[in-house]
Amino acid sequence: MHSNEIKRALISVTEKRGIVEFVKELASFGVEIVSTGGTATQLRNSGLAVLDVSDYTGFPEMMDGRLKTLHPKIHGGLLARRDNPAHMEALRSQHIGLIDMAVINLYRFEETTSKPGCALEEALENIDIGGPTMLRAAAKNYRFVSVVVDPEDYDRIIQEMKRTGGKVSAETNFYLALKAFQLTARYDGAVSNYLGRIQPDGSQGDFPQTFTLQFARAQDLRYGENPHQKAAFYREGKPYLSAVVNARQLQGKELSYNNIMDADAAWQMVSEFTLPAAVVIKHANPCGAATADNDDIRAAFAKALKTDPVSAFGGIVALNRPVDAEAAAELAKIFLEVIVAPAFTAEARSLLEAKRNVRLLEIPAASSAPSQDYDFRRVVGGLLIQERDLDSFDIHQARVVTKRTPDADEYQALDFAWRVVKHVKSNAIVLAARDQLIGVGAGQMSRVDSVKIALMKANLPTAGSVLASDAFFPFRDGVDMAAEAGVTAIIQPGGSIRDEEAIQAADEHNIAMIFTGRRHFKH
Questions:
Q1: For the residues of 341-361, what is the DSSP string, one character each?
Q2: Is 242 left (phi over 0), alpha (psi -120 to 50) or beta?
Q3: Integer distance in angstroms from the first to the last C-alpha of the chain?
Q4: Rounded distance, CA 340 to CA 338, Å?
Q5: Domains recognised in the chain with CATH numbers
Q6: Is the peptide bond before 427 cis (omega within 30 degrees of 0)?
Q7: Which of 103, 153, 199, 409 is deepest in the core (most CB within 10 A)?
Q8: How confident is the model over 269-282, as pLDDT tens digits?
Q9: What's the 3-state SS for 290-319?
Q10: φ, ψ for residue 319, nearest 5 deg
Q11: What's the pTM value of the predicted model, to 2 decimals?
């Protein structure tokens, strides 16, 4: 396939990173530089010869910059097919020159509209018109025009031009064009999503009328949930998220579909805790969780493992502190699929290298509290969208509904259990001590069955434990069963028409019960 020689480049960028160095390299090949506004000024101040767009087109920039590049001399130069004699004759007859490269990125619409208090007028002024139009024109004609939207590609292009005497290959141009169309698609989607939330009174609603998102493929997976299903892993463009999607894999086999699902569940749950914490996940549900004092992450994992050591075999572990040598030695005692942590010391890496198949994922902890975001759930032919369940409810604000109020140790245990139960599949029941998960009943059709399973799965003593329920008790039977096992306090949302029966049962057994008024279903 042919290459195109770069003789004239149009430069118009909002992201100025690396642009001066890139244009200096282009100029070394004798490339004529045409540029706009602030970009032209910056290049000229750096000693580069630059032709202003208005001088190139013979038409002045106007309307506060709204009209500057929407001109036949720009778009004709970008769109003309060099292998079409009629196109080339049209350019000659209208005195339009060819543009071989367009280096363009767009007004920061997403950044602007994400700021608190952004007014509609400000948002509208940050909708780029000329930029996307030029990008689409250049990308459509990629066989003859190089379109550059990402500063990360500057060096690749220059190195190729040095190898080829100033040319860019069709293969590279196709790669660049695809990135350009991906950018304009994301940009248009952001504008549509923002404007789609505008209400008749000018306020912002919660959800747009039409919802558009873009995800970039991070990797192909060997298969999906089952070997007969093809699968791939995609990233949303949010590098600031403390999440599995932005993890760095340090060792081990490729992540599977189920590894990613479970690692995500583990990291979300362990991120609930400020104390050193460890979580063990198996098939999307926790089978171990614990916290420790004195920044002892090894102790946290050792306690978490005691919840259900049988189920933990082949599980996914997440820790919210760096893994040191002592923690690594403890982790190495059991077969694990994935270990997720903010960091691993050199000594820990050395110890875990012997477990060459275990995947180590490093995820930097969030520098601030997570902002509200959307969760998506695909259904056939549709999409369910909701806000993420980032509730950080202070259980001391919960309503005490029984004669007895929880004591300080019980409140600590109830807080631990409430943080865990929101990450367990409904119907969910959790038994816990002040710093350790004791039993889990997950995903049952009957709440009392979840209580039975939580008690059955408990390897640790249940006497003196507390219980968390992700939704209300429809009958008193679950409370009676918990009392028989020695549970002393219960946290639940409340809201059943039979709440009084559950409260009466708790009082009869001298159980302290508090109502949060909020539910944590997880389907």
A1: ES-B-HHHHHHHTTSTTSEEE
A2: beta
A3: 52
A4: 6
A5: 3-195 (3.40.50.1380), 246-362 (3.40.140.20), 398-515 (3.40.140.20)
A6: yes
A7: 103
A8: 999 999 999 999 99
A9: EECCCCCHHHHHHHHHHHCHHHHCCEEEEE
A10: -130, 145
A11: 0.83
